[in-house]
Amino acid sequence: MTHFILFDLDGTLIDGVDDLVVAMNRLLAEHTLPALTREELEPMLGDGARVLTQRAFSARNSDLNDGALSAAYDKFVSLYEATGYRDTYLYNDAETTLRDLHKNGWKIGLASNKPTRPCREILSLLGIDDLFTTIAGGDAADVRKPDGGHLAFALDGMGYNRDAGDYAVMIGDHANDVNAARAIGIAAIAVAFEVDDAKARTLGADAVLTRFAQLPDALNKIA
């Protein structure tokens, strides 16, 4: 039996909100729209960059048609990549915990609704891309979280075989993560690094973390 673990990215492994705010506000400025604060943008996260773009413009009373939204989304991704992710950082104990899991035989993957290219760039910049068997952003599969097919796609690329007794768990901070895990019958652990832990406990996960260092104990209890 092999153990597989999938992670979300934003709000789970990293805090990258400040770079997202910078990129989105540059885009809004190009459309002569007022800037968003971190507090305004943060609740918009979790459903991918295209939905984030739509929500940001809607928050400034500017609704985009499909063509305009596609153009704005492409520009946002470009502006986001141009930040160089200078203000993006790993949560405390994230790298140590990941390296311990890897050393202990866990296969590690990423399943994020963020586009795959920024996911790869961020993991490389932070020096942990070597730990990941697969990196499946929101554009990697035909579906994305909360559709369980996104996780199934990532796990398939990692060699997961339920019939052989393999074990899999999804780690994330959003209902999308837990719901996607439930959709394909795998375990889920919620993290409360960017959200109130009381809210995280309403997601229906098998465990809730308030610190990354709690992950090994949580896995021992549910795996």
From TrEMBL:
Pfam families: HAD_2. Gene3D superfamilies: HAD superfamily/HAD-like, Putative phosphatase, domain 2. GO terms for molecular function: phosphoglycolate phosphatase activity. GO terms for biological process: DNA repair. One of its GO terms (cellular component) is cytosol. Pathway: Organic acid metabolism; glycolate biosynthesis; glycolate from 2-phosphoglycolate: step 1/1. Signal peptide: none annotated. It catalyses: 2-phosphoglycolate + H2O = glycolate + phosphate. InterPro entries: HAD-like_hydrolase_sf, HAD-like_sf, HAD-SF_hydro_IA, HAD_2, HAD_sf, PGP-like_dom2. Its EC number is 3.1.3.18. Belongs to the HAD-like hydrolase superfamily. CbbY/CbbZ/Gph/YieH family. This is phosphoglycolate phosphatase. It comes from Thalassospira mesophila.
